[in-house]
From TrEMBL, chain C:
It catalyses: a quinone + NADH + 5 H(+)(in) = a quinol + NAD(+) + 4 H(+)(out). HAMAP family: NDH1_NuoK. Its main location: membrane. NCBIfam families: PRK05715.1-2, PRK05715.1-3. The gene is nuoK. Keywords: Cell membrane, Membrane, NAD, Oxidoreductase, Quinone, Translocase, Transmembrane, Transmembrane helix, Transport. It comes from Pseudonocardia lutea. This is NADH-quinone oxidoreductase subunit K. It is found in: Cell membrane; Membrane.
Length: 283, 655, 99
């Protein structure tokens, strides 16, 4: 902190200490930014971004902006980035980018344009600003940084400040509206209405689907139920689970047979009980 | 010139003058509207209406004869026709010797030809039923023509003249194209219509100029004040009027429609394209004589046009084998004489009208004779297929012969009086004009004798070539005399051809016309003594007859047209290249221009419009593909834009 | 060392963020790249404040942070709802609005 304080005390050009810090953290922040763009995993990207932001917070502190520096750390790195990670975990953690670029020439064009842009910025800024002596914030922040900002915010920038408050409230409301999973009120149907609809034939079958594992030898969701006549109720298996080879343990022959014998060409001798039931089930 | 006669209001029968054209007009209307119901009696109504007009015309004529010459010019204002700002035109009639002369000619010859048409247009035995209605249609259009022609000559202002002018143009167009199923007739009608339009533009412009400068279009006022105009304006007016006259009268350079107009039925050729309508140009110039009196230059142009035309007509007439075309070019030539006469000024106006009248008789008679011959020869017009018809159709032969002798100026027949008088007056001019006019007219008289003698010999004398030939419709020729309804008018006209000249000069036509045309000035001695001229003309004509006899009469006429022939004959057969000239100079560039415009429109204008639309459409279809829906593409373009803007900013800032 | 170095670093970080927006397809990572761009701008604002001797730049950066927070809230909510309907957080999958 002493280095920072020393840096803050100097009015104009940065001192040696600040230079040292800059030349360490500057490359770090740039490398982190590049790494963020290049990282395949979105969580890694977020973490690299956090690193960049922290570096920037240090820069703020060094440039006599302690308030912004801490806001950067607390609000940005702390709250906003956590929100990012939260949403990331919620929706897109495993949907990492595919390597294939679908837009032809997009990457090359982006990099080339980006380099051109950077070149222009560096050339322009370098040519314009190196000659300007730095004034330093000695006078403006004579009462301290925070009181200075506070005075400006509540005097010259009062109206924008109030507008930002309105903006924040609007954003909060908008987020609630957007994130609120709407359910249609009419979608909910009473039990009586459902029964009537079932008996009218509006559903594929009158009864509910049978649960898995009923009368089966195993209690697993991957084992289909047996109907009272002993045939297999294939619809008792979830569609997601079907086709998933979960069965590694040896099963009793009948059930192992039942599991695989949904087909018609099953040998008659091994599936005595299933034949009629299977056909009835299909009917 | 003498002071213009006082104009009095019409009285007595004169106040009924409007019936002159109203009767045929109503008749035409009835015949047009009545449809098939009028098939049975349509021709009777047509003849009766023209006869009624003729009778009324005679009554008015007699009444006018009864008053002193200076009171013979009357006007009858019917109603205010056009009243628009400063333009005020009355529907008024001018009944004076000139218009009455024309009325009698039109209704008299018109009546004869109407009667003739009853026989000529009669449906053939076994003809299709539509020919009945075609005869009704024919009479309706013929009546329309008579009505329009009477409006033309009776109007007391230029607008009525123009109304009649266009009316006869319409009737002429309809009647030339009467045989609608023949492409040649349709083409000839179009040609006549188009070339008449050229002339009509001239007439219309002349009327515009008159109104612009004088503010009135009534003859009396115009003639009274025309002297106020500058010489250039008067010359322009006269030349424009001459253009109108050339168009209507088939004068050079607009002469080539008239021979083609022979595609119409022969009575039409006789009435419209020989006796009356084509002389409207002569009437126009004679009527506007107070204007022409003021401009010797204009008169010279008129006379030169007449000279050129009479030579052209006479030369081409020698080469044709088509009997009606020969007569048509003869008409062109004779109207050339009339134009020459009226171009001579006060010394010639009355002579032009005189020749117009006699020509009306004998040329109508000749055409009716030709129609009779065609009637006998299955509508064939090729004289090489004729021959020896004189024995078969004696009445036609005799009446035609009368017309022939009158036309070539046989002594003491009609043409002798009128044509010789014109040639005399032509020789009476001073200097080069006298020589040019006189010699050309004399030469044309010789040529006229030649081609008419050739026509007579080929048609009525010699061996009967038609015996070994088939008509175009595959039948044998059975020449026969025409029915009395056709021969009657021919006889009347033949009598007129023989005696009209003598009678008219004896009763003093020139004095009769004086109130309208001014006193006929005796032409001065000019370049040749007057006593010498008739002998010269007679000798020239006799030479023409002799040559024709030697060339045509002494050897058998080949049925096929001899080819090749010398250049003058070739040129004459091709109308002295008038059609070729028109095609090359006017039609061809017109077609090219149209094609170029069509091309420009299709490719240029349409191409521009369609191309713009297609370009926009195609471009949009391609540009649309930029809208991929991938937000990263849009972001890329945004970055590109940013780079551009930053680069531009830096360039401006630091450059 | 001149404070201009901060500006250069800021420009580079901004460019890296922009490239990230263009090449990454995971909507959340794209969002993080946007955050990086905003932070880069903040760094330059703070540096400008120091160079000018005025606190206005810092106030501006403060506002940027607030707006960024609001934006993050709404943006993440949008990503959530898109994910809920499309089962995907790739920006390329939401491409129906096109020709």
């Amino acid at each position: 902190m002493s280095v920072l304080a020393q840096a803050a005390s100097t009015a104009g050009d940065a001192g040696v200490g600040e230079a040292i810090v800059f030349w360490i953290l500057g490359p770090v922040s740039l490398a982190s930014a590049i790494a963020m763009v290049l990282a395949r995993n979105a969580v890694h990207s977020a973490l690299f971004l956090v690193q960049t932001m922290l570096s920037l917070a240090v820069f703020y502190l060094m440039q006599q902006a302690p308030f912004l520096g801490f806001v950067q750390i607390i609000v940005y790195t702390g709250a906003v980035m956590m929100l990012f990670l939260f949403v990331l975990m919620l929706v897109g953690r495993d949907s990492s980018d595919s390597v294939v670029e679908v837009l032809r020439g997009q990457r090359v064009a982006a990099v080339l344009l980006g380099l051109a842009f950077a070149l222009l910025l560096v050339a322009g800024v370098g040519r314009a600003a190196f000659a300007i002596p730095s004034a330093g914030l000695g006078v403006a922040a004579s009462n301290g940084n925070l009181p200075g900002i506070g005075r400006l915010v509540f005097t010259d920038y009062l109206l924008p400040f109030e507008l930002t408050s309105a903006l924040l409230i609007t954003a909060a409301l908008g987020a609630i509206v957007l994130a609120f999973a709407q359910k249609k009120p009419a979608a909910k149907r009473g039990q009586r209405a459902t029964v009537i609809a079932r008996l009218r034939g509006e559903h594929a079958r009158v009864s509910p689907l049978p649960g898995p594992g009923v009368y089966a030898t195993a209690n697993s969701v991957a084992v289909p139920a047996l109907l009272p006549d002993g045939s297999i109720a294939r619809e008792s298996l979830s569609e997601i689970i079907e086709g998933h080879e979960v069965d590694e343990h040896p099963r009793p022959p009948a059930d192992a047979h039942a599991l695989t014998d949904g087909r018609r060409d099953a040998p008659e001798g091994t599936a005595v009980r299933t034949t009629t039931g299977g056909e009835e089930d299909r009917a | 010139m003498t002071a213009p006669p006082e104009v009095l209001p019409a009285t007595g029968a004169g106040s009924l003058a409007w019936l002159l054209f109203a009767i045929p007009a109503v008749s035409a209307l009835v015949l047009f509207l009545a449809g098939k119901r009028a098939n049975a009696w349509g021709h009777v109504l047509g003849v009766a209406s023209v006869l009624a007009s003729f009778v009324l015309g005679v009554v008015i004529f007699v009444q006018t004869l009864g008053v002193a010459p200076d009171q013979r010019t009357t006007e009858l204002s019917l109603y205010s026709w056009i009243s628009s700002g400063t333009l005020d035109v009355d529907f008024g009639l001018r009944i004076d010797p000139l218009s009455l002369t024309f009325v009698l000619l039109i209704t008299g010859v018109g009546s004869l030809i109407h009667i003739y048409s009853v026989g000529y247009m009669a449906p053939h035995a076994g003809a299709e039923p539509s020919s009945d209605s075609s005869r009704r249609r024919f009479f309706a259009q013929l009546n329309l023509f008579v009505a329009a022609m009477l409006v033309l000559v009776l109007g007391n202002n230029f607008v009525l003249l123009y109304l009649g002018w266009e009316g006869v143009g319409l009737a002429s167009y309809l009647l030339i194209g009467f045989y609608q199923d023949r492409p040649s007739a349709a083409t000839a009608a179009k040609k006549a219509f188009l070339m008449n339009r050229v002339g009509d533009v001239g007439l219309a412009l002349a009327i515009f100029v008159l109104w612009l400068n004088l503010g009135t279009l009534q003859y009396t006022e115009v003639f009274a004040r025309v002297g106020e105009l500058s010489g250039g304006t008067i010359l322009a007016i006269t030349l424009l009027l001459l253009l109108g006259a050339c168009g209507k009268s088939g004068q050079f350079p607009l002469q080539s429609w008239l021979p083609d107009a022979m595609e119409g039925p022969t009575p039409v050729s006789a009435l419209i394209h020989a006796a009356t309508m084509v002389t409207a140009g002569v009437y126009l110039i004679a009527r506007t004589n107070p204007i022409y009196d003021l401009t010797p230059t204009g008169r010279v142009v008129v006379a030169l046009i007449g000279v050129v035309t009479l030579l052209i007509g006479a030369v081409i007439g020698c080469a044709y084998d088509d009997i009606k075309k020969v007569l048509a070019y003869s008409t062109v030539s004779q109207i050339g004489y009339m134009i020459l006469a009226v171009g001579l000024g006060p010394a010639g106006y009355a002579l032009g009208i005189f020749h117009l009248l006699t020509h009306g008789f004998f040329k109508a008679g000749l055409f009716l004779g030709a129609g009779s011959v065609m009637h006998a020869m299955n509508d064939d017009v090729n004289m090489r297929n004729f021959g020896g018809l004189g024995r078969r159709m004696p009445i036609t032969f005799v009446t035609f012969g009368c017309g022939y002798l009158a036309l070539i100026g046989f002594p003491f027949l009609s043409g002798y009086f009128s044509k010789d008088a014109i040639i005399e007056a032509a020789f009476g001019q001073e200097g080069w004009q006298g020589w040019v006019y006189g010699l050309a007219a004399t030469l044309a008289a010789g040529l006229t004798a030649f081609y008419m003698t050739r026509l007579m010999i080929m048609t009525f004398f010699g061996e009967e070539r038609w015996r070994n030939l088939k008509a175009p419709d595959g039948e044998d020729y059975h020449p026969h005399e025409s029915p009395p309804v056709m021969t009657g008018p021919m006889i009347v006209l033949a009598i007129g051809s023989v005696f009209a000249g003598f009678v008219l000069s004896a009763v003093g036509l020139n004095q009769w016309l004086a109130p309208s045309l001014g006193e006929l000035q005796e032409s001065p001695a000019g370049v040749l003594p007057h006593a010498l001229v008739p002998w010269l003309v007679l000798a020239c004509s006799a030479l023409g007859v002799l040559v024709a006899y030697l060339v045509v009469g002494r050897r058998p006429t080949p049925v096929q047209r001899p080819e090749p022939v010398s250049f003058p004959v070739r040129a004459a057969r091709r109308d002295l290249y008038a059609n070729a000239f028109n095609e090359t100079v006017i039609e061809r560039p017109g077609i090219w221009l149209t094609r170029a415009l069509v091309f420009l429109d299709n490719r240029g204008v349409d191409g521009l419009v369609n191309g713009l639309a297609a370009g926009l459409g195609g471009g949009s279809a391609r540009l649309r593909r930029l809208q991929t829906g991938f937000v990263r593409s849009y972001a890329l373009s945004m970055l590109g834009g940013s780079v551009f803007v930053v680069a531009a900013l830096l360039a401006v800032r630091f450059a | 060392m001149s404070p201009t170095n901060y500006l250069l670093l800021s420009g580079l970080l901004f460019t890296v963020g922009a490239i990230g927006v263009l090449v990454r397809r995971n909507a959340i990572v794209v969002f993080m790249c946007i955050e990086l761009m905003l932070n880069a701008v903040n760094l330059s604002l703070v540096t400008f404040a120091r160079m000018n001797g005025q606190l206005d730049g810092q106030v501006m950066a403060f506002f940027v942070m607030v707006v960024a927070a609001a934006e993050v809230v709404v943006g993440l909510a949008i990503i959530m709802s898109i994910f809920r309907t499309r089962r995907s957080s790739s920006v390329d999958d939401a491409n129906l609005l096109k020709y």
